[in-house]
Every structure is written in C-alpha cells, then in structure tokens.
Design brief:
5-stranded antiparallel beta sheet, 8 strands, globular
C-alpha cells in the first residue's frame, strides 16, 4: 500500500504530469454497466448537466483532454448519487485510460469515462 501511494505521489509530482496542457470540453461520453443484468449503455452528457442511468444520477462537472487531441487521454469530474439513498456514491475525477484508479464503488453499477466531446 505504501509503495502504491509513493508511486501515485511520484506520478502526480512529476514534471511530465504537471506540464501537460489541457483543454476543456463541452461534454463527455461515459459507459454504464448494470452488473446484475450485464446491460451496457453509452451515456452522452454536457458539462453541468445531470443524466439518469437506472437508479444513478450522474452529473458531469468538467471534462478535459490533452490540448489539440480530443481523442487523447480524457479525464472527467463526476458526481454520482443514487435515487432513494442519502449521500454521494462518487465524487471526483475519473481518468479514461485508468478507470480503476478512481472507480465508482457500487454493488450493482459501474460507470467509467470513455472520452470527452466537443460541440
């Protein structure tokens, strides 16, 4: 665990990470999975909007991608709540290339970022 935290800290503090220039996108494409039924749905939403995926309410707060490369490694700020349950299921950044790094911790559903979109 300590090695993992040291690795993450080194990655975040590295010059390459700090110097990557990004652009804000107007929206994102997410993928939702119902682990019980196996249903997979692509979800397109704009920044500041909320969409309902089964019992989850997903709000996109921001989506960023490497400057000049919208198909590049995107990352999105999300807030996810569940209907009928108090509190937030997930709040934070998800990285398209590493969805397990910051994942939704839910018994039934999984959500991850596919890419940013520009309109």
């Amino acid at each position: 665990m300590i090695r993992y935290l040291a690795f993450v800290c080194a990655l975040v503090c590295s010059d390459a990470f700090a110097q990557e220039r990004t652009q804000a996108a107007s929206g994102a494409v997410l993928r939702g999975l119902n682990k019980f039924s196996g249903d997979v749905v692509d979800i397109e939403l704009l920044v500041g909007r909320t969409v309902k995926f089964e019992r989850l309410n997903i709000t996109l707060t921001d989506c960023r991608y490497p400057a000049g490369n919208p198909a590049g490694n995107s990352y999105a700020g999300l807030e996810i709540t569940e209907t009928g349950r108090e509190g937030v299921v997930f709040s934070g950044w998800m990285i398209a290339s590493s969805p397990a790094l910051s994942a939704v911790d839910h018994a039934r559903y999984d959500v991850w970022v596919m890419r940013c979109i520009t309109l």
